[in-house]
Amino acid sequence: MKFFEDIAAVDRVELGRHTFTADDIKAFARRYDPQSFHVDEEAAARSHFGALVASGWHTAAVWMRLLVEHHRREADAMRARGEPVAELGPSPGFRELKWLKPVYIGDTVAYATEVVETRASNSRPLWGLMTIRNSGVNQKDEPVISFISTAFVQRRGPPKDKP
Amino acid sequence: MKFFEDIAAVDRVELGRHTFTADDIKAFARRYDPQSFHVDEEAAARSHFGALVASGWHTAAVWMRLLVEHHRREADAMRARGEPVAELGPSPGFRELKWLKPVYIGDTVAYATEVVETRASNSRPLWGLMTIRNSGVNQKDEPVISFISTAFVQRRGPPKDKP
Q1: Which is nearest to B28 in space by CA: B68, B61, B67?
Q2: Model confidence pLDDT, tens digit, residues B54-74
Q3: pLDDT at B162
């Protein structure tokens, strides 16, 4: 993770792609969202979706994994250059999560994240807050998920006192 | 699922409880949120959390499972009484998801959901839309998660034409 001071409000990162297989969709759904159109191809064919679709929480959870993997690669590269690595802190939450299109078997979703705002934390002087807009787009370039999240990011040091 | 017409804006349902074990927390996190404080007790002890905590997406996904199980029990009871069962449709998304407190090993979260609004769907005459406020509270009665979601619910029939 970059330090708070090094994050600009225009930064956009392609996080990577994930192809949703039938096994993958069913494995998530059996544990966390066992609705028939997420676990049973025949029932899904009769549903309003017309075919098996991924749970929306699955689509979101894959974003999280790709974000963590991105930060891990970034941290490895920073360490390789001898640079200190910042810590990504807790997230207070997210807003405006939209599932825009169903994700079907074989769909490949490309995830990206864009920094929309950075601000100092009033309560935690060693941390800043970044607000990011997250999105996933399928292989037909159709947006399937979008949401805005906020997370704490470590600062290089406490803010300087004014002289 | 009850039909749209039978849902009142005051309905509150206790969905059930879930105790987050270390294995459970790590199994979700290894797949979807492999940050050190979700998968490694020793690293978590050194983190700002001070101990292993569940991924926020895990806390949300368990809500989803308990909601599905609740609707299944409700549907079984309705069928046992010989009543028709409505279909729960897709969800356009969520808003204002807040992770209010960390969920630690052994924490038991009680989930509830409350209907805050129902309205007819303009685009789909056979469906209504319900907006629900969802929450999870730990064994110390501290809220750990809250969010607002919207979902389509089947109507008993198309809205009547005015005479």
Answers
A1: B61
A2: 999 999 999 999 999 999 999
A3: 47
Confirm if B44 and B51 have CB atoms less than 8 A apart: yes
Chain B residue numbers with beta carbons less than 8 Å from the beta carbon of A91 are 56, 99
Residues on chain B touching A93 (C-beta within 8 angstroms): 56, 96-99, 147
CA distances from A30 to A35, A78, A139, B114, B118 (A): 8, 39, 26, 25, 29
Nearest residue, CB atoms, A91 vs list B56, B64, B69 = B56
pLDDT digits (tens, 9 = 90+) for A62-96: 999 999 999 999 999 999 999 988 888 888 899 99
- Per CB distance under 8 Å, which residues of A are interface residues toward B? 31-35, 47-49, 55-57, 60-62, 64-65, 68-69, 87-99, 102, 147
Of B32, B56, B90, Cβ closest to residue A48 = B90
Nearest to B20 by CA among B98, B136, B103: B103
> pLDDT digits over B82-121, tens only?
998 888 888 889 999 999 999 999 999 999 999 999 998 8
Binding-site residues on chain B for chain A (CB distance < 8 A): 31-35, 47-49, 55-57, 60-62, 64-65, 68-69, 87-99, 102, 147
CB contacts, 8 Å: B49 with chain A = 90
Tokens of B144: 């750990």
Task: Name which residue leads in pLDDT, A119 or A159.
Answer: A119
Q: Please give, rounded to a whole number of angstroms, the shortest distance from the CA of B49 to a CA of chain A.
A: 9
What is the predicted pLDDT for the residue at A159?
Answer: 61
Average pLDDT over residues B18-34: 97
**ipTM score of the complex?**
0.86
* C-alpha–C-alpha distance, residues A121 and A128, integer Å: 5
Q: Report residue A133: phi and psi, to 5°.
A: -100, 125
Tokens of A120: 């100092």
φ, ψ of residue A112 to 5 degrees: the values are: -140, 160
- Write the residue in B34, B88, B102 that is nearest to A68 by C-beta: B34
